[in-house]
Amino acid sequence: MTTPISEFPFTLLADELQRVRANTPLVHVLTNEVVQCFTANTLLAVGASPAMVVAKEEVADFAAIADALLINVGTLYAERLESMNLAIAAANAAGTPWVLDPVAVGVLSYRTEAAKAMLALKPAAIRGNGSEIIALAAGMGLAQSNHVGKGVDSTASSNAALSAAQALAQATGAIVAVTGAIDYITDGEKTWSVELGHPLMTKVVGTGCALSAVVAAFVADAPNRLDAVTAACALIALAGERAVECADGPGTFVAPFLDALHIIHPNQLRQVGV
Ligand SMILES: Nc1ncnc2c1ncn2[C@@H]1O[C@H](COP(=O)(O)OP(=O)(O)OP(=O)(O)O)[C@@H](O)[C@H]1O
Ligand SMILES: Cc1ncsc1CCO
Ligand SMILES: [Mg+2]
């Protein structure tokens, strides 16, 4: 059973956005080298405060003072993995929620093993595409790994990964968001479906990665993590839809996407809804 976003109270989405803007959460971002700037700009446009602190000498100190941490394994290598594990340990010690983006997990064994080990470290949320979520679930014996990704791109629809997402949420205690044409956000019991967004969003690198950073911003001090992650997914998809209205293609998508995120006001969401 899934509940469509049209039943997600608009006031809740507005309230979530207002909460994030009021708190301007400091988001510690350990992400891949492709999407750093776009991710930082997306967080700023939403109203959060990004910082890409990566040195192993600094990550523990910073994770302890940040409001949330993002771990994205898109361009993983040994030194970065060491930093990530130090940051996660410090975040957990400080009670700071952290989010896992398992980019291309299932395709390559090094990152698949690294992400699998991270699952035991209690992420607050996991956000990935269909192939990635199926692979994570398969690594725990919860699904069959029958949709290995094509590099960072999914070969599975989010629909095909829904039961894997629900099982993964139950097994890890994380909120799991599996994204694609429809985003599903689940705590293993309740599942929201967000049928918003536009296929052009897959033609611009890093929309999913940036969404994961926004998920981190929303889970910071969240009264309800399922609502927070659902609101983050809905917000990014809505901004994508609005951007497409004034974009000619991928090259002209990014500027109106950032503008839409910056301009969207909670009161607008209260009036018109999703
Ligand atoms: N076919 C689609 N139709 C509508 N919206 C889409 C579609 N595919 C993706 N989206 C939107 O793009 C967002 C990013 O999801 P996607 O599943 O493409 O991430 P991803 O594969 O991890 O991307 P990346 O690794 O490039 O950052 C989704 O949350 C959704 O809003
Ligand atoms: C293209 C790409 N390669 C490694 S990470 C990344 C960003 C999209 O996930
Ligand atoms: Mg991705």
From TrEMBL:
Q: Which cofactor does it need?
A: Mg(2+)
**What is this enzyme's EC?**
2.7.1.50
Where does the chain bind substrate? M52, G206
Which GO MF terms are attached to this record?
A: ATP binding; hydroxyethylthiazole kinase activity; magnesium ion binding
Q: Please provide the Gene Ontology terms (biological process) for this protein.
A: thiamine biosynthetic process; thiamine diphosphate biosynthetic process
Concerning its family, UniProt says:
Belongs to the Thz kinase family.
Q: What does this protein do?
A: Catalyzes the phosphorylation of the hydroxyl group of 4-methyl-5-beta-hydroxyethylthiazole (THZ).
- Indicate what this protein is called per its UniProt record: Hydroxyethylthiazole kinase
> What organism does the record attribute this protein to?
Chitinibacter fontanus
Taxonomic classification? Bacteria, Pseudomonadati, Pseudomonadota, Betaproteobacteria, Neisseriales
